[in-house]
Amino acid sequence: MTETSTRYVMGHDDRERRRLSLQASILNPLSDQLLRRAGLSAGLRVLDIGCGVGELSMVAGRLVGRHGRVTGIDIDETALAIAAARAREQGLDQIDFVHADIGAYRRDGSYDAVIGRHILIHTPDPRVIAGMAHSLLNPGGVAVFQEYDFSVIHRPFPEAPLCERIFEIFRAFFAKAAHGNVGTRLFRLLIDAGFQSPDCRVEYPLDGGPESPFYEWVAESFRSILPRADALGLVRSDEIVGIDSLAERLREETLSHTGCILGPAMVGGFARKR
């Protein structure tokens, strides 16, 4: 593992890849808005760092169109194969996927945009990745990152004890296992990397109703961290045993008081290279 390798704490199995696709169905509209605000448009050359199953790459691919190019890189070969197949199915021939560690990636040119979603949170030193993004860009190019901040807890209304407990475990886990507050750090990271005038906003996706995908999303995200959270002593035995019913219990809690279930705080930020 190099200094800039990701330490992806959620795992690399089929269940996690499905969770990423479910998450993308919720977050892609927010990412699309962020990329548009950052100026992604037809004809640009884009690098997607830590692309996973390619969801953000495909959002970018639609924006840059046939005359643009998107390259997604990741260390998970199975995820890349899924990404490539889905891009072909959607006719997005302007996207290619490369198996590469972030630290070892070598480019054949520079980019108009470097993008990443939930990548800095998992890297040993986010400052290195922000600096790499700066070095990979053409003058005037833009870096765009979308990062969680688990140090910020937005409580649901009305009160929802189960939901609040799960998010408290998320907060404690990411504080120990990753850079849990990297969303709030994003503005400073971009400045320190040499970018000018970052534009950063924080959003909380939230939803409700019987058909919401949020219940499964939160439950599967919790499942992904559960083994390591257990090893860190952050969960009770009943929370381990009850994982298979968690999504339904979250649904019942939310519907019982016509409330909402929320996602983590997420900071979207972009800045240009001088």
Name a few traits of the molecule.
alpha/beta, 274 residues, seven-stranded mixed sheet, 9 strands, Rossmann fold
Structural write-up:
The structure is a single chain. By secondary structure, the chain is an alpha/beta fold. It has helices spanning 14-37, 55-64, 77-89, 126-136, 161-177, 182-192, 214-231, 237-241, 246-256; strands spanning 45-49, 69-74, 95-99, 111-117, 137-149, 196-203, 206-207, 261-262, 265-272. It has a seven-stranded mixed β-sheet with strand order 3-2-1-4-5-9-6, with helices on both faces. A two-stranded antiparallel ribbon has the order 7-8. Helix 4 (126-136) packs across helix 6, helix 5 packs across helix 7 (214-231) and helix 7 crosses helix 9 (246-256). The mean pLDDT is 92. It is globular, with a radius of gyration of 18 Å.
Fold-level CATH name? Rossmann fold
Strand content: 15-25%
Shape: globular
Taken together, the total number of domains comes to 1
Briefly say what this structure is.
The protein is of the alpha/beta class and 274 residues long. 44% of the residues lie in helices and 20% in strands.
